Amino acid sequence: MTAADAPRVFVIDDDAAMRAAIQGLLKSAGLRSETFGAAEDFLRSKRPDGPSCLVLDVSLPGISGLDFQHQLADAGIQIPIIFITGHGDIPMTVRAMKSGAVEFLTKPFHDQDLLDAIRQALDRDRMTRQRQSNLAELGKTL
């Protein structure tokens, strides 16, 4: 596996201390990550073509995490999302999950819960990429 193919976890949270804590946790678990303070910064970044997922805070400056989830879907950007929030409620959780979120964690969350959700999200992305590759190969033979 090349460095470009290595799984990558993107973290968007406006709290610098939270970004640093999550990045440290991911590093200790052997996962590569990139952090962003705003959704717009993530959109401007160059993302490698390997398996990835997004840890997304619900409360962001500008666009909310839930609205950003819809913006990504509308733009055709398929990336599994794990929401984190300090101020979640049931309707918010339902909205996120109905729109395809992998998990919805309230702060403070257990490190292991986040790592489990990230592994699930990365597995989901790997399977999606494999299906897309298989369909592309099948299309070439037809």
Report on the architecture of this protein.
The model has no long low-confidence stretch (mean pLDDT 92). The protein starts with 7 loop residues before the first strand and ends with a helix. It has helices at 16-28, 39-44, 65-74, 90-98, 111-141, and strands at residues 8-12, 32-36, 52-57, 81-85, 103-106. It has 142 residues and is of the alpha/beta class. The chain is 49% helix and 18% strand. It has a five-stranded parallel beta sheet, with helices on both faces.
Q: Output the strand order for the largest sheet.
A: 2-1-3-4-5
What integer value in Å does the Rg equal? 15 Å
Count of helical regions? 5
Shape by Cα distribution: globular
| Percentage of residues in helical conformation | 40-55%
Mean pLDDT: 92
| Terminus-to-terminus distance | 30 Å
Number of strands: 5
Order of helices and strands: EHEHEHEHEH
Strand content: 15-25%
What characteristics describe this protein?
142 residues, alpha/beta, five-stranded parallel β-sheet, 49% helix, globular
Brief overview, please?
The chain is α/β, with parallel strands linked by helices and 142 residues long. It has helices at 16-28, 39-44, 65-74, 90-98, 111-141; strands at 8-12, 32-36, 52-57, 81-85, 103-106. It is globular, with a radius of gyration of 15 Å.
